[in-house]
Amino acid sequence: MNKHVSPKLNRRAFVIGTAAVGAGLAIGFDLPFGGPTVVRAADGSPEVNAWVVIRPDDTVVIRVARSEMGQGSLTGLAQLVAEELECDWTKVTTEFPSPGQNVARKRVWGDYSTGGSRGIRGSHDYVRKGGAAARMMLIQAAANDWKVPASECTAVNSVITHTPSGKTTTYGKVAEAAAKLTPPTDVKLKDPKDWRLIGKGVKRLDTPDKVTGTTVYGIDVKLPGMLNAAIKDCPVTGGKLKSYDEAKIAGMKGVKKVMKVGDTAVAVVADTFWHAKTALDALPIVWDEGENAKVSSASIAKWLAEGLDGGPAYVGNSNGDTKAALVGAAKTIEAVYNYPYQNHATMEPMNATALYTADKCEVWCGTQNGEAAFAAALEASELPAEKCDVNKLLLGGGFGRRGQTDYVRQAVLIAKQMPGTPIKLIWTREEDMTHGRYHPVTQCKLTAGFDADNNLTAFHMRISGQSILASLRPDALVKGMDPATFAGLNAKGDAPFGYSVPNLLIEHSMRNPHIIPGFWRGVNVNQNAIYVECFMDELAHAAGQDPLEFRRKLMKDHPKHLAVLEAVAEKIGWSTAPPQGVYRGLAHFASYGSYVAAAAEISVIDGTKIKVHRIVAATDPGYAVNPAQIERQIAGSFVYGLSGLFYGGITVKDGAVEQTNFDTYDSMRIAAMPKVESIVMPSGGFWGGVGEPTIGVAGPAVLNAYFAATGKRIRSVPLRDQNITFA
Fold it and tell me: What pairs with residue 63 in β-bridges?
C-alpha cells in the first residue's frame, strides 16, 4: 500500500474520539477524491483516486473500507463503485486500506465500522461518488490526449470511446494521466433506472480464494520469528488476577515467558500455541472474583422481573393515554416473555498478532471496525498515530463480536513485554465463550385492551433489562435512555413500529447486570420481534380472528410493513389449508431501514420435536444491490435466528458464564435447515440493510406455528429449556 506523510495526532484525543468500541472517529470527515500528485499503490500502479487503482493491464483495484465476514459487503461495495466507474467487472479485484492510512489521509475512506447492517446503506453515496469521479477523470485524460471535449466521450466496460471519430482507449492506458488531474467537484450519480451492475446477482469476489484455501484470516497469520500466546482472564467480569505460581510451569516445553496482562489476566508465550495453552492450563492461578461472584441467572431474572411492575422507565414510543384505556377496556390480555444472553460463538475465536518496537506498533487481525482496532492499538502501545497501524484481514465470523477490541488490546500489551518479536494471541474456545459480549438479557410484560367489538384499543409494552449502549457507548445514550433498546418499536426512523393503536406505550426499565452486553447479530430486534409478533398472535386468537386479518386492520397506515407480510402470506398459501399435520405461523418487522416478514410451515412430533419444513421470507431493502447475496443472507439469518431460538441461551453461575464450548452451546445442523424461499422486493427510494433484519422474524414465525400445532404458547427462549428440539 501507499506511503504517506502522516499528520501528527494527539493519541489521547484520538482514542477518546473513537471510544475504541466501533463508534467511528470524532475528527472531521473529509472526502477528497485524489489530487494533482500521483499516489501509487504498492505495485506502482497509479491511484486515480482513493477508491480506484488501475493497473496497466486494465485490472481495477477497488478499495473497500468496510469489513468482510461472510456477509458479502466486499462484493456489494465493489459493485457500487464499479457501477459508476463503468469498468470491466471481470477485471475487478479489491483490497482493504488500513485505518492508519485513513487517518493520515483525513478519513478519505470514511467509516470503517461494519455492523448494524450499515456496510452498504451507510456508505453507498460516497463510494458511488468515488467511482463516478474516477470515471470522469479517466474520460478527461483520454479527451486531453485526443484534444477533444470530454463531453464527446463515453466509457463502458473500461473502454473510452470518442463518439464522433470512433477512437477508443482503455482505462489502463490513461490511468497515469488521469491520476494527475484535479478531481471534479460536481459529481453526479446515475439514475437507478440506468444501473447495469447494481441489482445484478453477480458472483462474490471473495469466493475463489476461500474455495482454494488461499484466504488468510487473522488466525492464519505467520511472521518471521513469531511466537504464540494463550491467555486467561478472570472468569468473573469485574474480578482481578490475584496471583499465579510461575515456578510450577518452569521448564515446560516451548515456554518463553509468563506475564501479567493488565489487572485481570495472565498469558503464556511459547513457540507454538499448543505449548502456550498446555502450560497455561497447568499454571496455578488465584483470582479475586469480587462481589459479582454472588450473581446467578436466577438473581438476574428476579431483578429483571421486578422491573416489569414498577420503578422508573424510559419511554420510547407513546400516543394516547394507554393506562386509562386499559382500565376502561372491555377485555385485557397480558403476557410475560423473556429472552436470554446469547453468545456470538464465531467459528474463528478471537485472535490478533502484534509486533511492537519503540518506534512502531503493527497489528494483524480480523475486525469489524479497523479504526476502533487502531484506537485500541494506540491506547495499549502508547505510541503516536503515525507509528501504529492495523492490517485488516477477513473475519472467520463476526456477528457483532469483532466490533469490540479487547483481544487487540491484549495482543499489544503482550507484545510490549517482548519488543521486536511478533506475538500471535489466540483465545481458546473456552476463553472466547467466557469473555463474550453477549446479547443482552431482557424480560417483557405486554398488556393489551379490547373494546366490546374486539378492536384493539390499547397496547402497553414494558421491557426490563440490559442496555448495550450504557455499557459500550454511554455517550450515545439520550438523556439516560438507550434508543437501541427500542429497535423496531419506534414511531418513525429506520426501525418503525408496524401497527397503529389508539393508545400505545412502549417503555424500558433499564437494569444492567455485570455481564457485559454486546451487539449480537440482529441485536434488540431479535427479542422485540418475538415479544411483539407472538403477542399479536395471542391477541388475534383472543379476539377470535385470523392472525393475518387481525394484523391487516392495524397496518393500514404502514404500507411497507403490510406489503412484505402479504407477500409471504400469499406465497405460503395462507388462504388455503396446509398439508395434513403441517401448521403455519406469521411474523413481520422493520429494522435497519428494511421491512421484512416470514411465514413458517412446521410439524410437531410428540409435542416436543419441531420439524421446520419451509420458511418464506420477504425483504424490502429499498434498493437491492446484489439480490443473490440478499437471498443467501436471508437463509443465513434463519440459521442464526433458529439456532438462538432452539439452542441459544447463556446462563450465569457464581458470577461466571456456564457454557464454555459447543458441547453446551449448540447450533442447528444442516439436517434441520428448512427450505427457504426468498422474496426480494425492493421498492426504491431508500437504502436498508439485509444482514440482520430477517433474523428477528425467524423465531416468532416458528413459535406462532407451534401454537397453531399444539395450542401451547412458548414465551421463554431457548426452547431447549422447554425440552423442545428439532425433529
Answer: 95
Task: Name 594's bridge partners.
Answer: 591
What cell does 712 get?
A: 401451547
Q: How far apart are CA 720 and CA 716, in angstroms?
A: 10
Sequence-ordered alpha helix ranges (H) in 435-557? 468-472, 525-542, 547-554
Q: Helix or strand or coil: residue 528?
A: helix
Question: What whole-number distance in Å separates Cα of residue 657 and Cα of residue 509?
Answer: 24
Cell numbers that stand for 307 in this block? 422491573
Q: Give the amino acid at 589.
A: F
Neighbours of 470 (CB within 10 A): 19
**What CA–CA distance (Å, rounded) separates 547 from 543?**
10
For residue 455, give every residue at least 6 positions away whose Cβ sits within 8 Å of its Cβ, in sequence order, or none.
none
User: Taking the model in full, what pTM does it have?
Assistant: 0.94
Q: What is the pLDDT of residues 670-706, one digit of tens each?
A: 999 999 999 999 999 999 999 999 999 999 999 999 9
Annotate 393-447 with DSSP letters as a single string.
EB-S--TTGGG--HHHHHHHHHHHTSTTS-EEEE--HHHHHHT--BBPPEEEEEE
Domains and CATH numbers, the chain: 11-207 (3.30.365.10), 218-290+350-426 (3.30.365.10), 297-342+438-726 (3.30.365.10)
Convert 637-663 to b/e letters by CB count within 10 Å (16 or more is b).
bbbbbbbbbbbbbbbbeebbbebbeee
Centre a 10 Å sphere on the Cβ of residue 302 and count the other Cβ atoms it contains.
Answer: 10
